[in-house]
Amino acid sequence: MQMSYKYHMVVFDASTIILLAKIDLLETFVSNFNDRVLIPEKVREEICREARKETPELVKLIADKKLRVLKVKNAALVKKLMEDFAIDAGEAEALALALQEKAAIIATDDRNAIRACKMLKIDFTTAIAVLLRAFKKNLIDADEARIKLQKLASVARYKRVIVEDAKKQIEGGA
Questions:
Q1: What CATH number is given for 9-127 in this structure?
Q2: Integer Cα distance of 74 and 132 in angstroms
Q3: Is-contact 49 18, C-beta < 8 A?
Q4: What is the pLDDT of residues 50-86, one digit of tens each?
Q5: Under a CB-based contact definition with an 8 Å cutoff, are residues 15 and 110 in contact?
Q6: What is the layout of strands, in order, in the sheet containing 124-125?
Q7: Domain residues of the chain, as ranges?
């Protein structure tokens, strides 16, 4: 049974926000996502806590309300998700927020969070999928897509087959 969506929203966990920021694609995604992009409080803490090169961009997106920070109301659910799926608090809050707000999709690159999405029948996307979507929607050209994919492959832990498949999709669409 699929969730019924109140709004077309996406909830991000920290890993995917940081990966998209590292390849300079987060602002493009957020600006071209017609509705709402949400993050739970724990994800805000995670992405703003460390002084990375991307931190000022993330703080600005939050200040400009392009990334909306919402409180998760069900702390017991967060704890249960952490235990059931062996995920960190940020991923658990992202899942709980998606359920709470009836979000259409979760953006996560965490293997256990992806497994949780599959079991909970919540649609998900990854940084590579966002990159391919940006390319297919002509938000970036093939050369830029290849550069961003190469950078993403160097900063993330994707299986080689996933990266090769993405490369083929870019080459096939160029």
A1: 3.40.50.1010
A2: 34
A3: no
A4: 778 888 989 999 998 889 999 999 999 999 999 999 9
A5: yes
A6: 68-70, 36-40, 9-12, 105-107, 124-125
A7: 9-127, 129-173
